[in-house]
Amino acid sequence: MSDIILETRGLSKRYGGVHALEDANFILRKGEHVAVVGDNGAGKSTFVRQVTAVEQRSAGHVFFDGQEVDFAGPLEAREAGIETVFQTLALADDLDVPSNLFLGRELYKFRMGPFSILDRKAMRDRTLEALKTTAVKIPNVDNPIRNMSGGQRQCVSIARTAAFASKLVIMDEPTAALGVQETAQVENIIRGLKERDIPMILISHNLRQVFDLVDRIVVFRRGRIVASLNKDETDGNDIVSYITGVKGGEPANA
């Protein structure tokens, strides 16, 4: 039985005449944590949007958990077991923390069309449990998201992903706008995912973070994968050389 959880073959995305992603061959194994790095516009977020079906790919194939998949949208990807933290967070500002954690997967006391009743207590209790497990501190979970700081909002999004993680977690720059303490919280959540043997793709500009948290580093440049390197067999200078084009003129399989 294969240990590959995600594979892309020839994955490409074009916007008119612009080739944002070209022939991306990528493999992620069960339990593996892989960083995707590259300069702005290198194709990192475009790659994630094709895998999670936020956008429909122009060409190529995606295989997930042993099957070729063609998700109609991100909800189908999530139902298949892919949990994603996007840069936009995808939170509902007017809802409280439990409502955001269970958005799209609400718990009900009973369901009968328009007469269905939400089980708010169960959702609140499970939210508090999820926040405790991930060490995310939110003073009042009943507050609407719009009243929270940027760091708290990010942590809520990440806690939601970690709480429901099943087969694969993808995080797109999860600590870009966070302070030192909040960044440490997020990194501990990522380590917790590793302990639970949940595979992860981490998009990050922070090379210190990358080397601390992942097993392998995949470098994108100008829409192509130019390197796939084991963390223990490379260093920051080597990675920067691939990012800037000093090394890696030819596409690499990842």
Relative strand content: 25-35%
In DSSP terms (H or I, runs of 4 or more residues), the helix count works out at 8
Percent helix range = 25-40%
Radius of gyration from the CA trace? 19 Å
CATH architecture: 3-Layer(aba) Sandwich
CATH topology heading:
Rossmann fold
* Order of strands across the main sheet: 6-9-10-3-11-12
Domain count: the total is: 1
Report the CATH superfamily.
P-loop containing nucleotide triphosphate hydrolases
Global geometry: globular
Specify the structural class: alpha/beta
Low-confidence stretches: none
What series of H and E elements makes up the topology?
A: EEEHEEHEHEEHHEHEHEEH
- Average of per-residue pLDDT values: 90
CATH class bucket: Alpha Beta
Number of strands: 12
